[in-house]
Amino acid sequence: MNDQRLLADRTWQSPEWTVSQLVLAKGARTVSVVLPALDEEATVGAVVASVRPLLGTLVDELVVLDSGSTDSTARVAAEAGARVVRRADVLPDLPPLPGKGEVLWRSLAATTGDLLVFLDSDLVDPDPAFVPALLGPLLTASGVHLVKGFYRRPLRVESAEHGTGGGRVTELLARPVLAALRPELSEVIQPLGGEYAGTRAFLESVPFAGGYGVEIGLLLDAHTAYGLDGIAQVNLGVRKHRNRSLQQLGVMARQILGTVFARCGVPVASDRLTQFVQVGGEWLPDTLTVPVADRPPMRDVRTRPGPVR
């Protein structure tokens, strides 16, 4: 049976907090905004610019964590007003793993805020209200440790943009698998969304999936630690970003599925994924390994000697 307490008690369909109200509620707490980035020179500047006016009031740190861009992402982000940190410079004795979750995990060591807000750096037309809305429940509601953004997600197919249809992996994989294995989370509208916020106490207490499983892993871990009362969601309106190919989404889905299975105790027989590509008139298999590995809780890394695994 679905538990609809999240929709009833912890969902803000029309967030109305003003920045002034949130600054007052913030008190002595500090806020870090983190943008993970890899070759996002076309969009990262606008995302940084949407947050920069909040620096010094609601936001204390604005960090772009660059995971090895080969374009001008770092320069564009710095010129727009962010502090740019290279992944390789955070925990430099630890060889990096590939993937988004690795960057977000390292961001915990690169920032100091009591509260962290994560925004994807490939957003198109980012709304300056994203950060205040995501911080609202953390600053005004007791017991909240993770806030997920939700939104309408347009889908661009070639040159045509459709008003809905984005979030394909959410609808075809994440929502069904949560309904089957953790039905209490069926009320989360965007379980894979890259715009969310959390308390440092929570984020440093749980492992981070290294790849695209990071968002659903954090959601499952928040539910395990705090139940539905520790999770909130806020309406961010519309979110546009770069749409990925089906092959890319297949790899993403495999990482997400592996993370869900690991968190829910479901055994996995293989970490390989076979996709098919058409070459001439033939369909040929393309098999790759899709590792699903967690980084340990950051609080353990900060306190224990020896190598991190």
TrEMBL record:
InterPro entries from the UniProt entry: Glyco_trans_2-like (IPR001173), Glycosyltransferase_2 (IPR050256), Nucleotide-diphossugar_trans (IPR029044)
The Glycosyltransferase 2-like domain, residue ranges: 32-138
Reaction catalysed by this enzyme: an NDP-alpha-D-glucose + (2R)-3-phosphoglycerate = (2R)-2-O-(alpha-D-glucopyranosyl)-3-phospho-glycerate + a ribonucleoside 5'-diphosphate + H(+); (2R)-3-phosphoglycerate + UDP-alpha-D-glucose = (2R)-2-O-(alpha-D-glucopyranosyl)-3-phospho-glycerate + UDP + H(+)
KW Nucleotide-binding (keyword) present: no
Signal sequence segment: none
A Pfam family this chain is assigned to: Glycos_transf_2
Entries under Gene3D superfamilies matching the protein: Spore Coat Polysaccharide Biosynthesis Protein SpsA, Chain A
Keywords associated with the record: Glycosyltransferase, Magnesium, Transferase
EC number: 2.4.1.266
Family the entry assigns: Belongs to the glycosyltransferase 2 family.
Protein name: Glucosyl-3-phosphoglycerate synthase
Organism of origin: Actinokineospora fastidiosa
Higher taxonomy: Bacteria, Bacillati, Actinomycetota, Actinomycetes, Pseudonocardiales
